[in-house]
Amino acid sequence: MAAITSHCALRSDCAPFSSSSSSFSGQTFRQPAPFPGISLSSPAISPTLRRRISCQTSSAISPSSAVNVKEKSGLKDFLHINDFDKTTILKILDRALEVKALLKSGERTFLPFKGKTMAMIFAKPSMRTRVSFETGFFLLGGHALYLGPDDIQMGKREETRDVARVLSCYNDIIMARVFAHQDILDLAKYATVPVINGLTDYNHPCQIMADALTIIEHVGQLEGTKVVYVGDGNNIVHSWLLLAAVVPFHFVCACPKGFEPDEKTVQKAQQAGISKIEITNDPKEAVRGADVVYSDVWASMGQKEEASYRRQVFQGFQVDEPLMKLAGPKAYFMHCLPAERGVEVTDGVIEAPNSIVFPQAENRMHAQNAIMLHVLGL
After folding, report:
1. Is there a contact between 80 and 107 (Cβ–Cβ < 8 Å)?
2. Of residues 173, 207, 209, the one with CA closest to residue 191
3. Could you tell me what percentage of the chain is helix, strand and coil, using 3-state DSSP and rounding each to the nearest 5?
4. Burial class (CB in 10 A: 0-12, 13-18, 19+), 263
5. Residue 294: helix, strand or coil by DSSP?
6. How many Cβ atoms are within 10 Å of 162's Cβ, its own excluded?
7. Cα(216)–Cα(208) distance, integer angstroms
């Protein structure tokens, strides 16, 4: 069947199976009505069902076509925080607070994702990312499908562009947690449904949206706060920098020499002229006057062979009680988890009254719910 490729775009602008006859290889045959007495153009068919039984046939959908399908349908991707302006980011965070309050009240009739499905691609395993996305999508009426590393082997068994097209046939939205940042870019390029970046080696936008939500709840606002990150200049730092290019606050990254964040990303944040950005090698000076002290593991997934070396290099960058004392009594501690207690942070700091790591973890679900509502135009 190499002659044609059937691409189910799941969008309302695809050609529906509304005709009573169809031609294939020069032969004409009758198509039975899918529901007796009801045509696909009938108002009795819901918009969601009509989308699902639409199919676009083409030899190959181009990247520009995929982008056009999204634009025409009012759909968006969520790949980098700075793809959106300040007003949009704050609007998403406000929506997260509203939907969170609704769920906390026990309300279960708000089901905007009813009849929708989400494909979740996990090249990297994660407890928080899977449970927060799957639970959140379910609580709002949808169904999420977990696709682990052995289910797809994206880029190995099947090209990313093909995975994007196929999953767009069956689902309304795709979330992917991958290693290479190019993989998420390629998924978004070829998918005709919204793609959400669940994490790449370059950035982790959903995590930072949850962090911003947590800061708003506990500090009272995000704008004007001082956030000090202590540790490796990794994908979390890149996402904080990209947020600082949109929303004004003071961001400091304290890291060992040679472990600074990507220079181009730092320059992008600084050149935006929105926030005060500092990169330093002195954690003690950095944390003074902080509203939030933030940490992450020193060796991320895929860097575990460097763990012993990094523990030596990162001596002096552990967030412990003396460091938090320098930050001041009002400073909160945050960590994106999982944490290696006794390594980048002490057990006492994580369990202290001013630690908000678990409300922060919960807010992954609420921030992501708002992100999904936004990209789906709901």
Report:
1. no
2. 173
3. 40, 20, 40
4. exposed
5. strand
6. 13
7. 12
Q: Give me the helices (H) in the chain, please.
A: 47-52, 63-73, 86-104, 127-139, 149-152, 160-170, 181-190, 205-219, 235-244, 263-272, 283-286, 307-313, 321-327, 347-350, 357-375
Tokens of 200: 């790449």
169 catalytic residue (yes or no)? no
Angle value at C-alpha 373, between 358 and 97, nearest 5 degrees:
40
Strands 21-24, 27-30: pairing is antiparallel
Please give the backbone phi and psi of residue 56, each rounded to the nearest 5 degrees, phi first.
-105, 125
In the structure encoding, which two tokens stand for residue 145, read together? 């499908």
Distance CA 40, CA 36 (A): 11
Q: Phi and psi dihedrals of 87, rounded to 5?
A: -60, -45
Q: Are 89 and 49 in contact (CB under 8 A)?
A: no
Q: What one-letter code names the amino acid at 189? A: K
Each residue's pLDDT tens digit, 193-247: 999 999 999 999 999 999 999 999 999 999 999 999 999 999 999 999 999 999 9
- Write the single-letter amino acid at 224: G
Catalytic residue among 8, 206, 253, 336: 336
Residue 21: strand pairing partners:
30
| Confidence (pTM) | 0.85
Phi, psi (deg, nearest 5) at residue 199:
150, 140
Distance CA 268, CA 291 (A): 24
CA distance 61 to 161: 10
- Residue 177 tokens read as 């947690």
- Look up tokens 């000076």; give the residue: 285
What pLDDT score was predicted for residue 302?
65
pLDDT per position as a tens digit, 272-314: 999 999 999 999 999 999 999 999 999 886 666 788 999 999 9
